[in-house]
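Lay summary

Proteins are chains of building blocks that fold into shapes. Our project writes down both the chain and a compact code for its shape. Here are two examples, one after the other.
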Amino acid sequence: MNMRSSKDHDTASSRANPSAFWLNIAEIELSALTRQSLDRRIDDLDVLNTGLAAWQKATNADQQQVNWQFTTDDARIKLRPLYRVH
């Protein structure tokens, strides 16, 4: 998963609630964990914990960051139909 940070864009998340920002990151991490490590049935808790620890160590060592590519301008265009002006 390549998620390099880009500070060149005014991202939609830059003005968003900080809790929402971290929630998005948590959802991305859980999705990656599910695809990379939890894509099979694991019957043994020790096997699960060992696999999770290995995934966490590798993920933390990789030091990837989120690359938010959905800019504020993109969000305004994409979400315009959802927000009607009264």
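And here is the second example, written the same way.
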Amino acid sequence: MAHPLRATQLHGLFHAEGRTSPRTDAQLAALKDKAAVSQALKDSFSYCAAVIEKLDDAKILASPQLTYSFLHTIVHNNEIYGNIVGYMRASGIVPPSTAARGGTGR
């Protein structure tokens, strides 16, 4: 469960911004109830969004490390979304990207 909360795919972007992940692995391992995990996930998304919001093309292209980190983030997120969509469809749920286009997923 800690992987999406750590936002490891953004490590290079955090480092370039002089930041570290908002919670340590030990803090994440200590999360036991649904409310705490949900809050940590919301915090992680907010933290990542704030880092990405400050980026522009010039900043991303300023170094090979930052370019790689950004591209890795995009590719990784697409892979994870693909996994989630598979689970949603297997459970009879129409993914948001399909529903937004008026599709039924069938």
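What can we say about the second shape? DSSP finds seven helices and no strands in the chain.
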